Amino acid sequence: MVKLMPDTKPYEMKEENINKASKALKAMGHPLRLKILCVIGEQELPVMDIVSKVGTTQSNISQHIDILREKEIITSRREGSKILCKVRDPNILKLMEAMQATFCPVN
Amino acid sequence: MVKLMPDTKPYEMKEENINKASKALKAMGHPLRLKILCVIGEQELPVMDIVSKVGTTQSNISQHIDILREKEIITSRREGSKILCKVRDPNILKLMEAMQATFCPVN
DNA sequence: ACAGAATATAGTTATACAATGAAATGGTGA
DNA sequence: TCACCATTTCATTGTATAACTATATTCTGT
């Protein structure tokens, strides 16, 4: 068994890690949100930059960013008049690399 | 930028890979479905085994398995009276290992 | 051909998500 | 302090998901 719940047998499984992981996957499992994450990558980007790179309404992006923040996928801080967003956990970027390997056939 | 869409600039981005990836993430982003995947791992398992290991109704599991099949995360084949399910793409298991690294703090 | 096991499907109901447009907040520079 | 830019919040509406129960289908062994 792939151990998202290390050192447990099926019937004794702690659900905790499953739940954390599935919440994060759910948060990332929306095309706009995934695109937001791709666009941010290792950078710190102001919301309006994300809006223009991703391409939908500012309000819509703002709400998706909020979801990513709630789910602790990204963080943001104010700098002057702008809010800068970045991916919170380097492991998330790792995860995205794994997705790239999985879903991006080599040209 | 993390390249889920290799060799493209933001405005020229093909959406294709983003869409594939987000569909898969969405499919995996439900606790029961993630648990199903963990339980199957590298094995081939009959539905009833999954039911008993995951622990909800047969009907519910069947429907989630169906979703995983539609989204091409798992495949299944009949052997005698049983339907055996397995994870379709080894890359999905890789992805799950990456999730494990991300979401399972070491004990 | 029949009984029973294994799995799938359907119908229903409740809940969650997504997109939109309009309005509100908070910071900045003249 | 006023006008403006960046961002958030709100209300609404439509659509998608989830769970449940009951029923149907398909195979197996006798």
Structure description:
Two copies of one chain form a homodimer. With 107 residues, chain A is an alpha+beta fold. Chain A has a domain at 31-99: Winged helix-like DNA-binding domain superfamily/Winged helix DNA-binding domain (Arc Repressor Mutant, subunit A). Chain A is 54% helix and 13% strand. Chain A has five helices and three strands, in the order ααβααββα. Chain A has helices at residues 16-28, 31-40, 47-54, 58-70, 90-103, and strands spanning 45-46, 74-79, 82-87. A three-stranded antiparallel sheet of chain A has the order 1-3-2. In chain A, a hairpin with a 2-residue loop joins strand 2 (74-79) and strand 3 (82-87). Chain A is globular. The relative contact order of chain A is 0.13. The interface between A and B is large, with 53 and 53 residues. The first copy, chain A, binds a DNA duplex (30 and 30 nucleotides) through residues 30, 32, 46-48, 56-67, 78, 80-83.
Describe the secondary-structure layout.
The structure is a homodimer of 107-residue chains.
Chain A: H1 16-28, H2 31-40, E1 45-46, H3 47-54, H4 58-70, E2 74-79, E3 82-87, H5 90-103
Antiparallel strand pairs in A: 1-3, 2-3
Helix pairs in contact in A: 3-4
Chain A binds a DNA duplex (30 and 30 nucleotides) through residues 30, 32, 46-48, 56-67, 78, 80-83.
Apparent shape of chain A: globular
Level-1 CATH class name of the domain at 31-99 in chain A: Mainly Alpha
**What is the CATH superfamily label of the domain at 31-99 in chain A?**
Winged helix-like DNA-binding domain superfamily/Winged helix DNA-binding domain
Judged by helices, strands and strand pairing, the structural class of chain A is: alpha+beta
**Percent of residues in helices of chain A:** 40-55%
What's the number of extended β-strand segments of chain A? 3
Mean pLDDT over all positions of chain A = 87
